[in-house]
What we know:
By secondary structure, this protein is mainly beta. It has one helix and five strands.
Amino acid sequence: xxxxxxxxxxxxxxxxxxxxxxxxxxxxxxxxxxxxxxxxxxxxxxxxxxxxxxxxxxxxxxxxxxxxxxxxxxxxxxxxxxxxxxxxxxxxxxxxx
Length: 97
């Protein structure tokens, strides 16, 4: 995915900021429950880079797991146009709407 909307209107995003502004969406990419029935908000986000990302496209290879007590996890391998750039992990809390 990608976006042309800057973080601050009229400013050019630094490469890492341009890349990171989309990473928080990972918990909604591999949906395991109906979004109109279950709310699965992430309560944290941890990103690790193995190199500087290139601004532009952000690729996700995402896995989502839900446990029986309302806890879950999202794990993503992140990529830019040159390939893998790092990982992202999110803890989830699941609640019925």
